[in-house]
Amino acid sequence: MVTGEVEVEVRELKILNTAKTPPFMLDDYVDVAENIRLKHRYLDLRRPAIQANLMLRHRVARTVRTYLDKQGFLEIETPVLTKSTPEGARDYLVPSRVNPGTFYALPQSPQLFKQLLMISGYDRYCQIVKCFRDEDLRADRQPEFTQIDCEMSFVNRDDVIAIMEGMIAEVFRDALGVDVSLPMARMTYAEALDRFGVDNPDLRFDLELVEISDVVKSSGFKVFADVVKGGGIVKALNAKGCASFSRKEIDDLTDFVKIYGAKGLAYVKMTDEGWQSPIAKFFTESELATLNTVLGAEVGDLLLFVADTYRVTNESLGRLRGHLGHKLGLTSKTDFKFVWITDFPLLEWDGEARRHVAVHHPFTAPMDEDIALLDSDPGKARAKAYDLVLNGSEIGGGSIRIHDQAVQSKMFDLMGIGFDEAREKFGFLLDALEFGAPPHGGIAFGLDRLVMILTGSDSIRDVIAFPKTQKATCLMSEAPNVVDEKQLRELSIRLATRPK
């Protein structure tokens, strides 16, 4: 043949099946609404990009299991139907037919069971496990998600971090051919908030926050001075080279920080003539010179200010920093920056509930040198907790656990969980601690989120075979859905409302 050397002679044609025309092209450049793709997910899964994502996910899981096996971990399955212990996100509940009026809960994590395994003498546990949380969803969250879950006995924080760094390095080497530099960077929680406003900083770019409370506390700009006088703080961010932003772009940035509770966003454009801003007139020449120095201001820069409570100022300006990083193209998907965040607060005050709540969970151990603070000033106690952050996303978090029953009971007291309530919710753990728990700790990584970053995907749904929407529904199978009256009667359930 003119077009090749091999000619095929057809002797028989057998049609195995027929197919309708797909509702969208099955290639990587299709421009179709996501709800259409999810409705026909079985077709969307044929696309090469999705197939590549799931193949990489398989390789990551295989690498994790191989690495942990070599490190002496046992993969042990923990229950999926367990007891509801509502401390944190909402549980998904499952009614029991054989025990009318009672419910199981789907696990938010295997936390209690993996601690029990340490008490049982299984020194190194691991599991790639499904977990469930009934919470509001985002692009990087799903109601059911997969964790790489680990727990170890007779370890301290450095031991856990070292072993997990080796696992992550192995994953990046096998999945992407990327060598991760070890040891990874570390940063305390306090430093992260001071420099970046958030505890999951993206280190691929600078744009660090600078507190200027001392500079402006006596200034003529009452908005700043009054906030500092009232116990709040003022911070600024220098968006280098962004003085060309239009008024609409700055208004959009103002609307953005308001999402996180800020009342407004002050701005200054640095020009050849100096400050171009409605607030310039309120500062003396000396104050302007000092602010220029501490902020590293140069012609062409855009200075952005938030004045509010400590939490709101950091949260709003920190999130704005991340937003600007994406807007300015500073976040390459092939650049990977890791940092461990350590020394988290153990507790924080919930003003609405009028009690302390655990920053991580109630089983996190306090720093040894801070145990005395549990009696005198619990809000200042630090936790033996650690998060691994990659490119602004928390991909893993864990802690050294409380292995002493007296300290665990003290923790419950501080959280307003009385003796009877503690026995009701966590009695089996408190009983187990009486039989000699070793010092232990662990960590859990979000497999879905990790694979999302590895593949450069913008949504976690692109790395899960059959994901849910942001309303926690499956467009393909139409779950969740109604059930018939017979099933409800068998479960001793009567509905208060009827779905439309």
Plain-language structure description:
Helix 13 runs antiparallel to helix 14 (419-433). The protein has 500 residues and is α+β, with helices and mostly antiparallel strands. It is globular, with a radius of gyration of 27 Å. The chain has helices at 34-39, 41-44, 48-70, 111-119, 157-176, 189-196, 213-216, 222-229, 247-258, 285-295, 310-327, 373-376, 405-414, 419-433, 447-455, 485-490, and strands at 74-75, 92-95, 103-106, 124-132, 144-153, 185-188, 209-211, 233-239, 266-271, 274-276, 302-308, 338-342, 347-350, 355-358, 385-390, 393-400, 440-446. It has 16 helices and 17 strands. The protein folds into two domains: 34-184 and 336-344 and 383-403 and 438-487, Bira Bifunctional Protein, Domain 2 (BirA Bifunctional Protein, domain 2, 2-Layer Sandwich); 205-327, Gyrase A, domain 2.
How many distinct domains?
Answer: 2
- Overall shape: globular
CATH topology name of the largest domain:
BirA Bifunctional Protein, domain 2
What spatial order of strands do you see in the largest sheet? Answer: 1-4-5-17-16-15-12-6
Number of strands: 17
Largest sheet: 8 strands, mixed
Separate helix tally: 16
CATH class of the largest domain, named Alpha Beta
Low-confidence stretches: none
Query: Percent helix among the residues?
Result: 25-40%
The structural class is: alpha+beta
Q: What distance lies between the first and last C-alpha atoms, to the nearest angstrom?
A: 64 Å
User: Would you identify the CATH H-level superfamily of the largest domain?
Assistant: Bira Bifunctional Protein, Domain 2
Rounded mean pLDDT is 94
- Integer-rounded radius of gyration: 27 Å
CATH architecture of the largest domain: 2-Layer Sandwich
Q: In percent, how much strand structure appears in the residues?
A: 15-25%
